[in-house]
Amino acid sequence: MTQPTKKNIAILGSTGSIGKQALDIVKANPDKLQVEVLSAENNADLLIQQAIEFSPNAVVIGNEEKYLYVKEALLTHDIKVYTGADALCQVVQMDSIHMVLAAIVGFAGLRSTLAAIEAGKQIALANKETLVVAGALVTEAAKAKGVNIYPVDSEHSAIFQCLAGEFHNKIEKIILTASGGPFRGKDAAFLKTVKKETALKHPNWSMGAKITIDSATLMNKGLEIIEAAWLFALKAEQIEVVIHPQSIIHSLVQFEDGSIKAQLGLPDMKLPIQYALFYPNRVHSSFKRFDFASYPSLTFEKPDFTVFPAIQLAFDAMKKGGNLPCILNAANEVAVHAFLKDEIGFTDIPAIVEKCMDKGTFTAKPTLSDYMESDKETRALASEFCKSKISA
Ligand code: NAD
Ligand code: MG
Description:
Layout: E1 7-12, H1 17-28, E2 33-40, H2 44-54, E3 58-61, H3 67-73, E4 80-83, H4 85-91, E5 99-102, H5 110-118, E6 122-125, H6 128-145, E7 149-151, H7 154-162, E8 171-178, H8 188-192, H9 196-199, H10 209-217, H11 219-232, E9 239-243, E10 249-255, E11 260-264, H12 270-278, H13 310-320, H14 324-340, H15 348-359, H16 368-388
Parallel strand pairs: 1-2, 1-5, 2-3, 3-4, 5-6, 6-7, 8-9
Antiparallel strand pairs: 8-10, 10-11
The structure holds nicotinamide-adenine-dinucleotide and magnesium ion.
């Protein structure tokens, strides 16, 4: 069988930070990639603009109120327009799609990613919440369908790159690096005073609002611990976090002989996105190159689990398992949203997550509908805690 000359990709969440960078990669590789599907929740204007530029087979606008607007704008183009979460789950199963880039933010990305896996599509996974919430379900489905999940998250891409040629060798542990976010070195009293404007200023990465706040609370690293456990079949004891403020070493793997491999580069998400889209090939890029002389010192610190309790919460959720990571994720999504609306303080975020983990209904072996139910229940619970601003 001859290989298709172009890989047809669906980009779910194409108007977001990851989605837009993925389209830059498509633009730089028009002979290798073809966009089949684009999707967005609300940003109809950008979705229309992207559709006109990249001529996909179909677009999906999540928000049903914007359907007619998008449909009319694309009337003279040969592009199908759909709306709603159910439509997205059907569209990702189209025969012509080879790979789905899951770049929706949050729990909202779970169903479409699962639908793509069910249809046997290869997955480039940015939407870490999918694995945090339902890692067992997602990895089992992927195994059953012979689907590979290629990590897009920079740390997981780093680990994946370190594992090239090492798949038969046992991992002793992995070391996830974290920049430490904008409040590295600050104390608990300072964190109580933090406002969204400063929390949204990440020192090294430009990303969507939710992950930027997660990076400031270090919940992002907590979510990444759980993501790594599922991607690389690791136990909690095999995962370590180190603060590395320069974000040059993207993560490391230590093997049984004590040898450590690391992947380095300037902080630029285009590299891990491109690696996932073209795996196992590396294609030429014009991304800025790292230069050792410009970084005479790469430094490392231990994370402070007391000032930043989110990492410990994630370890606890992961160790107990069941739907606890789903509860952690839903509570965090609600709390981050409330913080972005100035409804709660910065330190309320992990406090609300912890409360929900204490009070939520535990299910040891959840099904998809259990996860849906648990997400819903936790959102209601977390909203109540937000109203009472529990740590104020
Ligand atoms: P973003 O907020 O910039 O974009 C999110 C995208 O998802 C948008 O296109 C939006 O329209 C879509 N979306 C939002 N809610 C939706 C819903 N309910 N239904 C359907 N679509 C919806 O987010 P981002 O920073 O691009 O992050 C996307 C995912 O990638 C997240 O899971 C994040 O953790 C992960 N990630 C991002 C980065 C980064 O550098 N931005 C790095 C690593 C991992
Ligand atoms: Mg990351």
